[in-house]
Amino acid sequence: MPSITRELDATRTARWYVRAHDCDSWIKREQCFGALTVILDDHRASARPGERPSQPPVQVPGLLDEVARRLYFRSREPVYKRWRSRPDGQRAARWAGPDFAITPAAAFIHEAKIVGFWPYRAGVLEVAGAFSMTDVEVLTAYLRALAAWACDHLTLAALVPSGPPACVAEDMEVFAAGDAARASRLAGASRAVVQTVLDDPSMTPLGAFNMVRGEVVELYREPVRIADRVHYSVAELSDRLMREADPAALVDQEQCRLLLASLDELRLLLTSEAVAPSGGAG
Amino acid sequence: MSGPQASEASGRVRGATEALGVLEARPRATRPPLEGFTQALLARHVDRAAWNAAGLPPLPRPTEEPAGDSVPLPTVAVVRLAQLVVSMHCTGLSLADRPTVWARLESFFTRRLPESDPVLIRLRAVVCHQRLEAGCQPPDVAGLRLLLDRQRRIHGANSYLTGLTRAHLATAYRQAGDYARAASLLEEEARVRTDLFGPEHPVTLVTRSMLARALLTQADVTEDVQARRGLARHALAVITDVRVARDRLFGATAANATKIRRYEAHALLLLGDLDRARAVLEHVLTFDAARDGQKDLYAIGQTHLLLARVHAAQGGRPQALAHAEQARRILSAQIPGGESAARAREIVATLAAG
After folding, report:
1. How far is A202 from chain B (nearest CA, A)?
2. Does B71 have pLDDT greater than 50?
3. pTM score of the predicted model
4. Of A138, A207, A258, the CB nearest to B160
5. For residues B211 and B174, is the Cβ–Cβ distance under 8 A?
6. Which of A174, B211, B266, B312 has the fewest CB neighbours in a 10 Å radius?
7. What is the mean pLDDT of chain B?
8. Which residues 203-222 of chain B have a CB within 8 Å of chain A?
9. In this predicted structure, which of A51-65, B197-211, B303-317 has the lowest mean pLDDT?
10. Is B203 close to A47, i.e. CB distance below 8 A?
11. Is the ipTM value over 0.85, yes or no?
């Protein structure tokens, strides 16, 4: 299993999810998230004929009251108590932690987005583990899965604070391997992916990822210069040809012809005035 | 399966599908386990017997009976996964054989989804694209117009999916010989995409690459020398922008960067810059071979065809004949009745006659 997958399996949110999911009261939480889905269905943007139906941010006044009403609770208390900063000892702690400044409604929204996105993330990690994906492959798949989540849960993605689930920024820190500036750029890329889908719900996950492909490529660009790569490869091939008992096993006739042609052309280019003004490269 | 369970299973499939889609870009030699994994995943979520009976890539019997997630998932998850299974299977087939498999997929879901389902309409657009890629004649211009109209009503005139279908319609016009209309539609589409997604979004680059191809095809059949050179110069300007952006985004040896180099060589050939055209094409062949070449044999055939034309223009008859023979062999195997295969046969005959 690639190390990035192991690290993503051990984030704070991943640990919280496992604990919360195993808790007896998880099913009650799921009922609340289900009620939210129904409430949000009414907030899907409608477009005039021929126009792109962009999804604006969604704000639901009295959200937890509304959730309680949808679940036919007599009071709002059963809903509120799950997302207060200090839940009673029987329940799983809320993802947002004990910070009083985070209201129950805000804590609920954070969790609803995280729980909605989690299976998409799990699907990526399952494949990443099975096929030893490289870090950049996992990141690409992750951002495409994030776009797929936004496509499938448009109004949840648009629910204020509009954008990706809060766990995504934490995961981007893992991808950035401790580089805060890089993590910040990746978090920006993840927000851009979701916003692209909100702007145009017909967007495919690949199309949304392509909006930030340049950023991802730049962050993962190999530091080795191409001339150095060629130099290493040529040196390695020469070395192996010198030592190989049967050089023909390394290079067949056709490859030999192609390599000679490429090297002839490279020699001409390297000795040209543009590359080596003194003519000394050859 | 309850609502939350269905939603969880669907999310997992969607996430896995995106990851498998990323891995699809890996060399074909590493692909069999990937195809097996993808098929096994789909086998858990479609009617396997009906799928196999429809002549689609056979799905294995699930090794373990999944605990409760074998009920139907939301359409979008299953259709995307099914598309991936077919796409992986098709890379092993000739271009001419691929549309048949895609048509079976369309038919499979047409029987199961309502006619107005946007996922089905999207699938139809994908199938149309596959037919265009294979150069099926005659191109289905009327069908694409109808599809475009539906996409416009569902997603809006300038949405991403509507734009994709508009570009496919332009390809159909080009294949039907209406080059000016194709180029004009693609110019317009490139403008729209540049405004919406930026000049370097891959989907904008695809449109500009298609525009270059339309201009080159038009130049090839234009008899007036000045007009031909004008079209080739226009194409070369577009190609240069696309090439630079693709080199940066995908790397110079990626399939789409190689394709735009082939267009570059074509433009250089039309402009009479034969040495540069030949050098670019030799690089294209090298990149295709390094990538493993199997995914796009048709593209390799096209490169040989252009090399034959360049060598012939330079008076190198033996080299021209060798490349033309290669082009004829590859293109006839890929699309026997296609225009490129016919062109290759024609060049071989001309060169052989001496």
Report:
1. 6
2. no
3. 0.87
4. A207
5. no
6. B312
7. 90
8. 203
9. A51-65
10. no
11. yes
